[in-house]
Each structure stands twice: as structure tokens, then as C-alpha cells.
Amino acid sequence: QVQLVESGGALVQAGGSLRLSCAASGRTFSSLTMAWFRQAPGKEREFAATIWTGGNTYYADSVKGRFTISRDNAKNTVYLQMNSLKPEDTAVYYCAATIATMQPTRPSQYHYWGQGTQVTVSS
């Protein structure tokens, strides 16, 4: 089992920045592929970014160039640095983990999920 706990969500003005954190426990963190998803009210959960065990990353087009995913294996933590935030980034952000996947954009590929953290961007 893997437990994931997100933090860092907040209310921020458009153009601002936030850094989300996700602390993992229960399994060797370095062996996990990690990702961030988000879900806005009335919409399906959508992929934002992923980072594989080797450090390679992949982003949704909607966040590419503004968001950066990173991991600190010594701290068992994955981060999402969000810059140039827009009102359409408003959502609950979820951290997810899986043993391995070649389809990182699909929520069904992830075995473990956090409880989510709210990000609200005001215009």
C-alpha cells in the first residue's frame, strides 16, 4: 500500500504561483511513477504532469511551459510548481502513484491516490 498526502493548495490571483507537495509513504518511493491530475467542478479528472522513476517528465499541453513536476526521493515527495496561473487552472489537484505505466495520462493506470488539494485562481 502507498499513502499519499497533498498540500499547498490555496487561493491565488491570476498570474501568481503555487507549489503543491505530495508526501508518499508505504513503499519505496523511488520505484514509483508519480503524477498530478486535476478535476474542476462538473468535469472529468484530467492529467496534468507525470515524472517517471528516472526523472523523465511529461506534461499536458494545457500546462506545458507553466508547470514543473519534480521529485525528491530522499524526502519521498513529489512537487508541482505552478507559475502563470490562470482561472481555468482552478481545480482540485490530486497526486497519484503507480508501479509502472506507458500510458501516464490515464487515471486508470494509477493504483494510489491522495485526497486532493484545492487550487483556486481568481481573475
Describe the structure.
This protein has 123 residues and is mostly beta strands. The protein has no helices and eleven strands. It has strands at residues 3-7, 11-13, 18-25, 33-39, 46-51, 57-59, 67-72, 77-82, 91-98, 112-113, 117-122. The strands form two sheets. Strands 2, 4, 5, 6, 9, 10 and 11 form a seven-stranded mixed β-sheet that branches. Strands 1-3-8-7 form a four-stranded antiparallel β-sheet, with no helix packed on it. Strand 7 (67-72) and strand 8 (77-82) form a beta hairpin. The radius of gyration is 13 Å and the shape is globular.
List keywords for this structure.
123 residues; 11 strands; 0% helix; globular
Mean pLDDT: 96
The total beta strand count reads 11
Number of helices: 0
Q: Main β-sheet, in a few words? A: 7 strands, mixed
Which structural class do you get from the secondary structure elements?
Answer: mainly beta
Shape: globular
**Percent of residues in β-strands:** over 45%
- The poorly predicted ranges are none
State the order of secondary-structure elements, H for helix, E for strand: EEEEEEEEEEE
Q: Percent range for helical residues?
A: under 10%
Distance linking N and C termini:
40 Å
Radius of gyration: 13 Å
Give a short summary of the structure.
With 123 residues, this protein is mostly beta strands. Helix content is 0%, strand content 49%.
